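Input protein
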Amino acid sequence: MILHILEAKIVEKYRIWLKFNDGVEGEVDLENELYGEMFTSLLDQDNFKNFKIDEEIATIVWENGADLAPEFLYDKMEILTKKY
């Protein structure tokens, strides 16, 4: 199955709640993933909170062009709910 993010929202600081198209929901803490040219600016909370779901690539993206693959987020996520 190709993973798609259906919903996403900030939980706190660098934690994001995600809902995937397979029914799995959970939270991912991205604080330790925000390094490198594209991601350093996201350490600023105002920049980090300003993401959206890009429907074409089915993942979260930021205004500066940064994005994270849904598969990466799924693997990093603490699963809260599974609906198979």
Remarks:
- The first helix runs from residue 45 to 49.
- The radius of gyration is 12 Å.
- DSSP finds two helices and six strands in the chain.
- The first strand starts at residue 5 and ends at 12.
